[in-house]
Specification:
The chain is of the alpha/beta class. The protein has one domain: Ribonuclease Z/Hydroxyacylglutathione hydrolase-like (Metallo-beta-lactamase, Chain A), CATH 3.60.15.10. A 7-stranded mixed beta sheet has the order 6-5-4-3-2-1-14. It contains 7 helices and 14 strands. The model has no long low-confidence stretch (mean pLDDT 97). Helix 6 crosses helix 7. A hairpin with a 2-residue loop joins strand 7 and strand 8.
Length: 235
């Protein structure tokens, strides 16, 4: 299983960058996980978007889903339709913009298998319905937190994952209990509690250098990397 980092900033991109988007490749198939601003252009450098097996959305905030609107034009031209999974209780304005002509929008089931990957989800703590996503294949596990603040149920969900791709939108000095995201330090604490192998920070703020975010998380969890577009995680 390969995870291609297409975009990693939020809630808006750096110059020339992109917000949340990750291409999961396994057994010759591709799954797109989130499709935020700027993701389509990055995706086109790696694969034909019309050939995607499925799209997994953590939630429907624009920085995680907006490029589906532009992708719809490509799908119309190509005469293709994509299956898109969303949190079952979501009824946001963005969902209503996903044309049924090109998107088959479905709620996440309790468990499913796509491209030989077992996929389960877990609700997170965010202002809108959001899901963390756990992907397991050939004895390896990736957990993507989506957007979340501290959430006790995520600890067992991420337990002993090989890779934790974790929301880290703040430095700890900026974090608050009612914030919509984790800080880099809180991400490190989650990684420690869940006993994961490697922590990858994403949803990075444009206001701080990635090395600053990485250094803060590493004070509590040494095996930490703040991702950057073009990175590939191999599991």
């Amino acid at each position: 299983m390969k995870v291609h980092i297409l975009g990693c900033h939020g809630p808006y991109p750096i110059a020339g960058g992109a917000t949340s988007g990750y291409l999961i490749s396994h057994r010759g198939e591709n799954i797109l996980m989130d499709c935020g601003s700027g993701i389509l252009g990055k995706l086109l450098t790696l694969c034909d978007p019309a050939s995607l097996t499925a799209v997994l959305l953590s939630h429907l905030h624009f920085d995680h889903a907006s490029d589906l609107l532009v992708l719809s034009y490509l799908l119309q031209v190509r005469g293709k339709k994509l299956t898109v999974y969303v949190p079952p209780e979501d009824d946001s304005p963005m969902k209503k913009l996903l044309s049924p002509q090109v998107y088959d929008v479905r709620p996440y089931p309790e468990e499913m298998e796509i491209a030989g990957i077992r996929i389960t989800t877990c609700p997170t703590r965010h202002p809108v319905p959001c899901r963390a996503i756990r992907l397991q294949a050939e004895g390896k596990t990736l957990v993507f937190t989506g957007d979340t603040n501290t959430c006790p149920s995520l600890i067992p969900f991420a337990k002993k994952a090989d890779a934790l791709l974790c929301d880290a939108a703040f430095l700890d000095s900026e974090w608050a209990e009612k914030a919509p995201h984790l800080s880099a330090r809180k991400a490190g604490e989650m990684a420690c509690e869940a006993q994961v192998n490697h922590l990858f920070l994403t949803h990075l703020p444009v206001t701080h250098d990635r090395k600053t975010m990485e250094a803060e998380a590493a004070t509590v969890f040494a095996n930490t990397t703040a991702v950057t577009p073009g990175d590939v995680i191999i599991l």
